[in-house]
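Progress note, sequence design subtask.
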């Protein structure tokens, strides 16, 4: 009799649970269900070699774990010629460097994807000696053009008029060793005048900084800071 009551109580609990679940039976998880395989892991020392020459085919070995059945894709300054998954711990690839001297990014990224997930790593593509020399020549030429443009923006002569009625004339003497456009104030004193791309003017004298906005060949809103003589506002025209 005790056993029967216990059975009835268990059945009652089962019905209550069934009703709480909205009248839907929850199937038990199949005991034989397969677990998802682990994602590929590339923390095994990195690609070998870690850098390759440009414009040439190189065999690259990629060690790792859980690599079986992997699909490999490459992005960046390289091209994937072929690849083979040798084992669960190694992939061999043939890669061609495809970097131009204008490319700022020198990396070739690798993505390894399996049913378990994805992992990525990268290698560096090195320019050839000739390409490095060509790149340096272009960079030097660009730097020189930038310096010449900076010097040219500052003009050859500045004529300033101050709020009190006095005037000053600054004549270009070229660039200082650090590339700053340099001027002489007529009394043997040096003045550095820089004009940025947006027309902002900065004049640096001993203990004095003057600033303003160059529009065309004129500054109409000049201001003075520090120990400027004379102090206060100023206007100017620049001769090119």
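Output:
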């Amino acid at each position: 009799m005790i056993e029967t009551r216990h059975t009835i109580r268990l059945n009652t609990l089962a019905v209550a649970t069934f009703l709480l679940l909205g009248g839907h039976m929850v199937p038990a998880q199949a005991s034989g269900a397969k677990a998802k395989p682990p994602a590929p892991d590339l923390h095994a020392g990195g690609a070998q070699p870690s850098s390759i020459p440009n414009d040439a085919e190189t065999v690259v070995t990629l060690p790792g774990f859980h690599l079986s059945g992997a699909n490999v894709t490459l992005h960046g300054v390289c091209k994937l010629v072929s690849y083979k998954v040798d084992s669960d711990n190694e992939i061999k690839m043939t890669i061609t460097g495809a970097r131009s001297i204008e490319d700022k990014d020198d990396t070739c990224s690798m993505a390894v994807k399996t049913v378990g997930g994805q992992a990525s790593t990268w290698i560096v593509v090195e320019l050839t000696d000739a390409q490095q020399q060509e790149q340096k020549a272009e960079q030097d030429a660009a730097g020189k053009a930038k310096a010449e443009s900076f010097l040219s923006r500052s003009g050859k002569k500045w004529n300033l008029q101050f709020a009190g009625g006095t005037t000053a004339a600054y004549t270009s003497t070229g660039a200082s060793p650090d590339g700053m456009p340099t001027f002489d104030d007529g009394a043997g004193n040096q003045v550095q005048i820089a004009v940025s791309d947006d027309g902002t003017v900065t004049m640096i004298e001993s203990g004095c900084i003057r600033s303003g906005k160059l529009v065309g060949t004129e500054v109409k809103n000049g201001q003075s800071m520090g120990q400027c003589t004379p102090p206060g506002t100023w206007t100017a025209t620049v001769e090119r």
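Residues 129-153 form the longest helix (25 residues). Work on this subtask will continue into the next period as scheduled.
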